[in-house]
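pasting for ref
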Amino acid sequence: MSVGSRLVTATGADQYLESPAQRREMLLGIALILPSVILIGGVIIYPIIYNVYLSFTEVPLNPDQSPTWVGLENYLSLLTTTRFWQAFQTTAIFTAGSTVASTVAGLAVALLFNRQFRGQRLARGLVLLPHVTPIIGVAFVWQFILSPLWGAIPNLLAQWGLYSSQTSLLAQSSTALPTVIVFSAWRNFPFAFLLLLARLQAIPESMYEAAQIDGAGPLAQFKDITLPELRGTIAIVVLLRSIWEFNAFAQVWLLTKQVLTLPVFAYQTAFANFEQGLGAAVSLLLFVIQAMFVIGFVMLFGENKI
């Protein structure tokens, strides 16, 4: 018996295959997807399993020495460390602020584009620029415009009496986090814009015409028609953006070193302090927190509405 035949028999698929031609077709499908499965296993699954293993060990600096098993010591150390909880709090504030701001901005811009006007295609392309421009480029541009020496934004705030310090907004812990939130919302609102605009254009115009006949104004139409129709799309945007913002590293690290989020904390722990076991534990806790959030989010809003 060939390997393929044994595989078909072992999986119980032979009882659903009525002819040798169907079996050959199934074996061909398995042969076609097997390289992808092996690649995914080697690139994604193996590193995850190895990271879980490292989180229970202490990794020596000498590469010739094997990691030492320490059990739950890394996790207990993290959960009793003030720096970890500060990073968690900062991550939660950053995630909530940037997600809400980018979603609201995307909805506002989508409402503006949900009508015909001259130059609409060009304007839509310009709106997408923050999201498609390489992060390293826009991060350095923002550092330039936020510089207290030659930046436009600090000078403008100083003229309004809102800013008088000679220290950069990104160099102060009190202003760095709000600035990073604004930057993240600006960079990522086109994602919400695209999804919400697509859903807006799918709403039947007859619903608005019927509402106008009944005497409903623009605000009532938005509250009673637009928002209910957008609920599922908004939930998807919030869920995806929350996951991505919770994992955000590049846009925080490139912009400022004054904001300590959990991804930054994991990077510093593993590659700056050379505590790779502890860093692996941080990343695994990051995954567990996100999994709990996703499960709670789906249970709250309902799986059939997401």
